[in-house]
Amino acid sequence: MKTSLFVALGLMLVLEGVLPFMAPALWRETFRRMTEMTDGQLRFVGLTSMMGGLLLLYLIK
Fold it and tell me: Which of 3, 9, 30, 56 is least surrounded by CB atoms within 10 angstroms?
C-alpha cells in the first residue's frame, strides 16, 4: 500500500509538471486566472477534480 501511494504521488508530480514545462506562458495565464477566482469557484474546481479522480479510481478497480 505504501509503495502504491508513493507511485501515485510521483505520477501526480510528473503530470503537474508537464504544463509548466511544455507551455509556461499558458500555465502562467491559467494560474493568474485562478488567483482571480472567488473562493467558491476554487472550491468547485477542487471538488470537481476530486470527484473526477475518485471516478477514475472506481473505474480502474
Answer: 3
Mean pLDDT of 16-44: 95
User: What mean pLDDT do residues 35-59 have?
Assistant: 94
Contacts of 7 (CB under 8 A, 6+ apart): none
Mean pLDDT of the chain: 93
